[in-house]
C-alpha cells in the first residue's frame, strides 16, 4: 500500500489577467512549491476555498496525487443557467447564474457554460484535477449516455451533451432530466433525506416528477421515466394539454391548472367568494382565500386535493415508495396542502403501499444543482 503524506499549499488570491474563456490551465506542477514537502499537522482540517488545497505526495514514485474535492452542479433552464460549485460532501461554496442564449438553435449554450465553469476554476485557482466533474440537469428527456432527445425550450435536437461539454471543459460530465435531477437532490439533501425510495412530485407551472430507487434515478428506456404530469386523470376532458393529449394531471394540478379549474368552479356557482372581486387571480390567491375561510375556495380545493391524492396514489401502486415529496410553487401552500391531499388518500391508496409518507420539498431552486452534483459522485456511479 502506498503511503501518502498530506501537505497544504497556500495559493495566492485571484489571478487578474487570465481570459475566463480560456480552456487551458497551467499544469498543477507549476503552482506547487517544488521543494517544500512537509506533513500537514491537521490532516483532517478543511481548508477555506481559494486559500489552500489538500494535496498528497506519493513517496514511492514521486507522483503528485490530487484529491478530487470539488464538483459543479448545473441546472439549465430556458431563460437562465444556474451554476453552483460544491465541495463533494454537498456543501455549496458558490452559486451564480448566466443567461441562457437560445438564439441559433441554442448553439452557444454549452460554450457559455464551459466558459463560466473554467472561469470559476481559474479565478479560484483550483486545478481541474481537483474537480470530480460536472453534473448538469436539462429540460428534456435524456438517455443514460448523456444524449438529449430534443429540448424544445432550448432549440436543441438530438445530440450527446456529455461528450460535447466534456470536450469543451476537459472534465467528466453527467447529464440528467431536470425533474429527475431535482428529485435526486431532494432525496440526497432535502425532503427525501433518510428514505431509500422516493417519488418527487413538482407542482409548478407544469407538473413534473422523478422516481428515485435506492439512490438511483429511474430514467426509463427513452428517458421519459417520472413524467407523471402527463398521466391521464380525467379521460372525459376535451381541452388539450400542452402535450396534445386531453385530461393530463398537469391540466388540474399545476399552478396554471389550479387557476383554470378554480375559475371554472367559480363560474358554475352563485355562492359569494372573495375571488370574484379579483379580475385575474393566481394560484396563491386561491390558497389565501381558503386560508381566510372563503367557502368557494375551500370547496374548490377539496376537488384539487382529491385529484392530487388520486394520481399520487396511483404512482404509489407502481413504485411503493417510502416517501412522496411535493415541491414546486404550489408546495408553498405548506402543511394545509399535505393535510388536504392526505385526507383524500385513504380513499385511493391501496393498503399494501399505504406506508408512504407525504413530505414537502426543502431545497427550493437549489434542488437541481444539488442533484446534479450528486450524479457525479463516486457512490452514484
Ligand atoms: Zn399532457
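^ Assign residues to that structure.
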Amino acid at each position: 500500500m502506498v503511503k501518502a503524506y498530506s501537505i497544504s499549499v497556500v495559493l495566492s488570491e485571484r489571478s487578474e489577467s487570465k481570459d475566463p474563456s480560456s480552456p487551458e490551465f497551467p499544469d498543477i506542477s507549476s503552482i506547487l512549491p517544488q521543494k517544500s514537502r512537509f506533513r500537514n499537522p491537521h490532516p483532517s482540517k478543511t481548508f477555506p476555498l481559494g486559500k489552500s488545497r489538500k494535496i498528497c505526495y506519493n513517496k514511492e514514485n514521486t507522483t503528485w496525487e490530487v484529491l478530487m474535492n470539488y464538483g459543479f452542479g448545473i441546472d439549465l433552464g430556458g431563460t437562465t443557467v444556474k451554476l453552483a460549485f460544491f465541495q463533494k460532501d454537498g456543501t455549496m461554496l458558490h452559486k451564480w447564474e448566466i443567461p441562457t442564449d437560445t438564439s441559433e438553435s441554442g448553439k452557444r449554450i454549452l460554450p457559455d457554460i464551459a466558459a463560466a465553469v473554467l472561469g470559476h476554476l481559474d479565478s479560484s485557482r483550483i486545478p481541474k484535477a481537483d474537480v470530480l466533474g460536472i453534473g448538469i440537469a436539462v429540460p428534456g428527456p435524456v438517455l443514460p449516455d448523456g444524449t438529449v432527445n430534443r429540448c424544445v425550450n432550448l432549440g436543441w435536437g438530438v445530440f450527446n451533451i456529455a461528450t460535447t461539454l466534456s470536450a469543451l471543459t476537459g472534465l467528466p460530465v453527467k447529464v440528467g432530466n431536470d425533474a429527475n435531477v431535482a428529485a435526486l437532490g431532494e432525496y440526497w439533501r432535502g425532503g427525501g433525506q433518510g428514505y431509500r425510495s422516493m417519488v418527487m412530485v413538482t407542482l409548478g407551472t407544469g407538473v413534473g416528477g422523478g422516481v428515485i430507487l435506492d439512490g438511483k434515478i429511474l430514467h426509463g428506456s427513452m428517458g421519459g421515466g417520472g413524467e407523471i404530469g402527463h398521466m391521464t386523470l380525467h379521460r372525459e376532458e376535451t381541452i388539450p394539454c400542452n402535450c396534445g393529449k386531453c385530461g393530463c394531471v398537469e391540466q388540474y394540478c399545476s399552478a396554471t391548472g389550479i387557476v383554470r379549474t378554480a375559475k371554472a368552479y367559480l363560474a358554475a356557482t352563485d355562492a359569494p367568494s372573495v375571488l370574484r372581486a379579483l379580475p385575474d387571480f393566481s394560484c396563491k390567491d386561491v390558497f389565501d382565500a381558503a386560508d381566510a375561510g372563503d367557502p368557494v375556495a375551500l370547496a374548490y380545493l377539496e376537488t384539487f386535493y382529491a385529484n392530487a391524492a388520486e394520481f399520487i396514489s396511483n404512482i404509489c401502486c407502481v413504485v411503493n415508495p417510502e416517501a412522496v415529496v411535493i415541491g414546486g410553487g404550489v408546495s408553498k401552500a405548506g402543511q394545509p396542502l399535505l393535510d388536504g391531499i392526505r385526507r383524500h388518500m385513504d380513499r385511493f391508496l391501496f393498503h399494501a403501499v399505504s406506508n408512504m409518507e407525504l413530505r414537502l420539498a426543502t431545497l427550493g431552486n437549489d434542488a437541481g444543482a444539488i442533484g446534479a452534483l450528486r450524479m457525479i459522485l463516486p457512490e452514484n456511479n
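Residues 70-184+367-380 form a domain with the Nucleotidyltransferase; domain 5 fold (CATH 3.30.420.40).
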